[in-house]
């Protein structure tokens, strides 16, 4: 009887100890907050960039890139976002051109319908990327001086794009490509565009750019970056021109955005003259003027 009484008396004590231990552990765990802040978010964005999760990169860098800050994280975030939006402009424009050629040559109704639908979607996606790149340009040109130097701080993507997307060649010839293969070709085109844009921005071929990015952040001259932005914006502008969406209002808006890069580029060229870059700048300015005729 005494033994039973002893057992009964221990049970409440054990219960109280469990409650106290649980409360203590919860207090300890709640006192350790997960790391936050622009620096941590940017490190996460770099990891997502390497893995090819570009939508996640954009969500992680959205607030830090658009708050009007000139912090190192904000500038790096804008550079990385410019790379992503530029690559999407290139990829979707190439896809739209591919599907247009395919639909014009294809003899099967199934092919024509499918290719026209994809072209319409790709023009829309590309135009959205152009508008987003315009926002990045607005951020870079909203301060009195354009950065003298920017940093491309990201690892080379672990999933590399092919030099040539075979199924896009088949589509251009009007050959029927199944829907799932079309989707896969679209993904390959985006991976290829990221690699090409990174190489273009860093001023080298893929292998050299990959090697440079694997050793750490890559410094980009401010003038080179401004010319890169203007070139990519001109490519984006064409998506609103008569050959594509024929949206004169949006074309006018983005031409104005592209022209914001003119004064800082002129100032940097005056400070550091370069005949080749002056010729490149003049060509881009002429292209913008030609597009403005359709506004």
In short:
With 295 residues, the chain is mainly α. It contains 12 helices and 2 strands; from the N terminus they run αααααβαααβαααα. It has a two-stranded antiparallel sheet with strand order 1-2.
- The coarse overall form would be globular
Mean pLDDT: 89
Number of strands: 2
| Class derived from helix and strand content | mainly alpha
- What is the overall number of helices? 12
**How would you spell out the order of helices and strands?**
HHHHHEHHHEHHHH
The unreliable regions are 1-10, 27-33
Helix content: over 70%
The radius of gyration computed from the alpha-carbon positions, rounded to a whole number of angstroms, is 26 Å
Descriptors for this entry?
295 residues, mainly alpha, 3% strand, two-stranded antiparallel ribbon, 12 helices, single chain, disordered N terminus
């Amino acid at each position: 009887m005494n033994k039973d009484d002893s057992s009964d008396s221990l049970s409440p004590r054990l219960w109280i100890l469990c409650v106290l231990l649980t409360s203590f552990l919860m207090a300890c765990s709640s006192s350790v907050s997960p790391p936050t802040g622009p620096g941590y978010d940017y490190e996460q964005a770099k990891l997502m960039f390497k893995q090819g999760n570009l939508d996640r990169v954009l969500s992680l860098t959205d607030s830090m890139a658009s708050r009007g800050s000139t912090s190192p994280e904000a500038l790096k975030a804008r550079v990385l976002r410019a790379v992503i939006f530029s690559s999407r402009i290139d990829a979707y424009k190439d896809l739209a051109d591919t599907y247009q050629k395919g639909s014009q040559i294809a003899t099967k109704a199934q092919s024509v319908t499918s290719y026209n639908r994809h072209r319409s979607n790709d023009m829309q996606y590309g135009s959205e990327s152009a508008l987003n790149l315009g926002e990045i340009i607005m951020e870079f040109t909203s301060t009195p001086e354009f950065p003298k130097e920017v940093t491309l701080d990201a690892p080379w993507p672990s999933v590399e794009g092919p030099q040539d997307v075979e199924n896009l060649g088949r589509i251009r010839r009007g050959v029927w490509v199944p829907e799932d293969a079309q989707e896969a070709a679209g993904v390959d085109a985006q991976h290829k565009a990221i690699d090409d844009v990174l190489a273009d921005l860093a001023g080298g071929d893929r292998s050299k750019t990959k090697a440079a990015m694997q050793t750490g952040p890559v410094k980009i001259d401010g003038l080179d970056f401004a010319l890169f932005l203007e070139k990519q914006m001109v490519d984006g502008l064409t998506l609103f021109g008569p050959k594509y969406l024929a949206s004169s209002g949006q074309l006018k808006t983005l031409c104005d955005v592209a022209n914001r890069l003119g004064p800082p580029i002129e100032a940097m060229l005056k400070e550091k003259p370069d005949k080749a870059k002056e010729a490149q700048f003049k060509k881009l300015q002429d292209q913008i003027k030609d597009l403005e005729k359709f506004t």
